[in-house]
Amino acid sequence: MCNIPAFGEKTCIQNQENRHNRVFHIADADDRSFDDYCALFEGVAYVKKEEYRTPIHRFAALSKGKQGVFINYYSFIRELRIVIEDFCRYFSYVDTCKNLSVSPQITQIMLEDFGMSYAIRLSDGRFVVIDGGYNFEPDRDRLFCCLKNESPESKPIIAAWIMSHPHIDHYQCFIGFVDRYADEVLIEKVMLNFPEADDLEHYPDLSYKDARFTDDVSEITNIPRMLERIKRTGAQSYTLHTGQRYRIGDADCEVLSCMDDTIHVSKNINATSLVIRMCLGGQTILWTTDAGFSYARLPERYGSYLKADILQVPHHGFQCGEASSEIRGYDLIKPQVCLLPVSDYSAYTFFCSYREGTRYLMNAANVKEIITGSTQRTITLPYTADDHVRREMKEKCARGERDNGARTWVYTGLSTSCKEDFSFTLLNMTALPATVDIELFFEAKECAIRFIKAEIPASSLRTLCIIGEEADGDALFFNGDSLKRKGIPEDVPFAVRFLCDKPMVVSHRHHAASYASMTF
What we know:
- By secondary structure, this protein is α+β, with helices and mostly antiparallel strands.
- Helices cover 20% and strands 32% of the residues.
- The chain is built from eleven helices and 28 strands.
- The strands form four sheets. Strands 7, 8, 9, 10, 11, 12, 13 and 21 form an eight-stranded mixed beta sheet that branches.
- The model has no long low-confidence stretch (mean pLDDT 95).
C-alpha cells in the first residue's frame, strides 16, 4: 500500500467512504502529479488497466489483486482525486449485448408529485432503470408495467439498475419492487455508490425519520434492507467511481461525479448523487439525479464536455447548492430537451419556476421542451422536440404565476386616522419564502415612505400591520425615506403599494385592491 500524500503535498484530505472505499483529495496538483501517482502505484505491482484524457481531465484505473485504484486529475481546478476500492469488480465487468431488435427509448415514469424513476430501453430490449422512486405500491407497479409493456421478451431483463443516492424518493422503490416482482423480471446488475447506513459523521441526515410515514423510512434502516434485496436477486453489484466507463448494451455510460468528489465538502446527501453521461441512440443524455453543481464543481471540472442533447434537470428543479453554478452548467450543457421529474403543479405553480437556476433553464433559448412527470411519457431516441412545445411550456409558466396571485398590489382610499387601514393579509402559495417591499404614498410627495420590508414564509397566510414590528421599516443601511426617519402624518389619505418577489395575494378586510399586476 502506498502512503498518500507521497510527494510532499501541503493539502491532502483523506476520507473513508465506507468499509471498502478510501478517497484522497489533493489540491494544487498538476499533470506531473497525475503521472507521479500512476508511477507510484505501478512501482508496487499495480497494473494500469485503463487511461484516457480530455483537454481538462485525466483518468487512470489500476488494479492489484482484488483492489482497484482510480485516479482523476482536473487541470482547471488543479485537483487530484485518488480512490482505493477493496474487493473491486470494475475490471471484471462484462455485459453481453443481445441482438439489436428495438429502438432505444426513455420512459419517465408518472409521478404523484416528485421522485425519480426512469426506464431506459436499450436497443437489445433490455433496460437500464435509474432509481425507481418511493417504496409505494403505485411507483413499483407503474415501473413494472412499463418494463412489461415495452419489453420484447416475456420476462423483462434489467441490464442495470442504477441507484443515484440514498434518499427515500429515489432508491427505496427497489425494496418493494424486489419483494413484489423479483420472479417476474431478471435483474443482471445493480450499480451505486452509497455511504454506510450509519455514517452520521459525514451524513447526519441518514437517521432522519419522516413523521408523514408510519413505516421507518430512515436510511439507517433502509440501506441494509436494499443491500439484502440485491443479494436476494443474485444480481452482480458494482460500486461506481468517477471516471469509470461502462458499456451497457449499446449505451456508453461515464461516471462524471459521485460521493468520491463531495464527501469532503458537504454533509448534504444530495451532494453524493451520481452524475452519468450516457450516449445512446445517437444522442447524449446527462443524468444529474439530485447533484448540486456547486458541491461537485461540475462546470469547472468538465467545461464543454458537459454538452448534452437531453438533460435530466438536477434535484427535480428544486436546486441543490448555488444557483450561479447551476446556471454556468446549463450554459455548458445547452440541452434541447429537459426531463424534469416533478408534477406540472410543482414545476410551474408551486416550486421549480421560482428557483433561479430552473427559471433560467426554462427561459434558455436552446431549450425546446421540458418534459414533466404529471403523465407517463416515453420518447424514442434520437428525439427531437416539436416546434409548438416551447410555446406550451411558456404558457404553463405564465399560468402557474397567475394562479398564485400578482407581483404588484396597490390600495388607495386609505386614511392614517384609521388604524385598521394599516392591516393587510398576505397569502404566499409558493413553496419558497417571499420578500415584499412596501411603499406608502401621500398627497405631499415629501411624506412618501419607501423600502418597508416583510418576509412571508412559504405556503403561509400572514396578517401584518405594515407600520408595525412585524414589518421592517428601516431595512436599508441608509434610507432617507424610512418610516423611522419620517413617521406617519396624522389624519391624511394615503395609498400603499406592495412589490412581491413571488406572486402573492394581498387583501384588506374593508378595501378592495385598486390595482394588481402580473409580471412574467
